[in-house]
């Protein structure tokens, strides 16, 4: 890794850009890097040249929702997975976590308030600073990079066609501390565990959280009439399960980048999606206030312009809107999985969410975060199977994020096996037949590239002691560990 640090000693109070570029050793050649913002202390403070972090990671807050607590005991969650009433508790719990994640953290960056999740650390943040240095470490909250999942170790090809979504993986302070303490982003450390015949990395402590927020950047050069951006929105799954990337949705809304004030909690969609904006109407146009969003800063824009073709032309000051966010919590051994995505009429979101799920939104969930739908996968099958020694029987449980998984086809999900859905035998090998927990249960570090190792799949049962893990190191469900280890 090559590090360029530039300090301006002539003006110690001025904000300076510091860039750390990781050279081209990234997974599948993707550019991964970090842009840091630093402030040097005034010389007369007695701490000259000490870099001050502009904000610190804030733990998950209590949103004070009646009946919601975090974390919930594993036994309680396991009981939830076994009854229809329990499913309601699961949906409510997911809404509580979402509300807590999107609360104002009290921290700011360049004068902009940050939501709790924005303050959390990315793998690059963790790799570039020890915990002791954290408070003195300059960071920016939202450094957009292309995703590993879409091109992970060369396995998942980009199925989104013209891939334009960007994002990052993030960890709460508890998970970040666990990664640091066990050096989990070190290939050498992982290999040492394998050599010592460990079958898994040390388990993350119970309340850990991990995230994958995904943004659509509204490139100014792609705006119609210099203000409207066409955003594909999820129309619900296709009748027959097929790969269904956003380019096939044929449903969109228009984001008015000049309207920062109007809240609209239910509105129309555009089914023509004319590139010239001729199908845009007031009903299918939404102001920025309906989206969690931020402005791309100069250094991140420069970085993205150097990455793949799709991200060329992003400029400083372009808005980025949150279209999707995956969330995992280690309240249970198999983690809880929930995913959130922007939807035009949040009272009536299509599958894999539902109007019934939307009805459970707490009153505390207000503003832009209320414009998102969710699904949850706290189990892979219904009735649920045990962690080990179970069978691939029962009703399939589907939960996927339209912006991330819907485009996947059978070749992206090589470890799929058939299952049952509504009494029929189904292949469970395309994105709309996936289940977060099934694919994450397979997560392993596989330095010998054993072809027998568990791999990406659609919804299925996978026992945590499946013999196919032999020769690999299980990574406690987090694909981002082998994906980022160097
Ligand atoms: C086909 C496999 C697959 C499916 C299905 C899948 N994921 Fe992931 N997920 C990945 C991979 C691979 C990564 C690592 C991405 C990276 O490092 O950029 C990841 C990363 C994540 C992360 C970041 C931390 C980590 O490493 O786990 C979260 C949280 C997450 N996914 C949640 C979800 C949720 C919620 C769903 C279901 C809605 C889901 N995932 C469905 C493969 C999958």
Characterise the protein shown here.
Residues 1-38 form the signal peptide. This is Cytochrome P460. Keywords: Signal. The radius of gyration is 22 Å and the shape is globular. Strands 6, 7, 8, 12, 13, 14 and 15 form a seven-stranded antiparallel sheet that branches. Strands 1-2-3 form a three-stranded antiparallel sheet, covered by helices on one side. It is α+β, with helices and mostly antiparallel strands and 486 residues long. The chain is built from nine helices and 21 strands. The longest helix is centred in the N-terminal third of the chain and has 18 residues, at 84-101. It has one domain (2-484). A hairpin with a 2-residue loop joins strand 18 (419-421) and strand 19. It has helices at 74-80, 84-101, 123-128, 173-181, 187-195, 298-305, 355-359, 436-441, 480-484; strands spanning 2-4, 15-21, 33-39, 104-109, 112-115, 165-167, 170-171, 209-218, 228-232, 252-256, 285-287, 293-295, 319-329, 336-342, 372-377, 381-382, 395-396, 419-421, 424-426, 444-445, 473-474. It is 15% helix and 20% strand. Bound molecules: heme C (HEC). Heme C is lined by residues 147-149, 152, 169, 210-212, 326-328, 337-339, 377, 399-401, 405, 413, 434, 436, 439-440, 456, 478-480, 483-484.
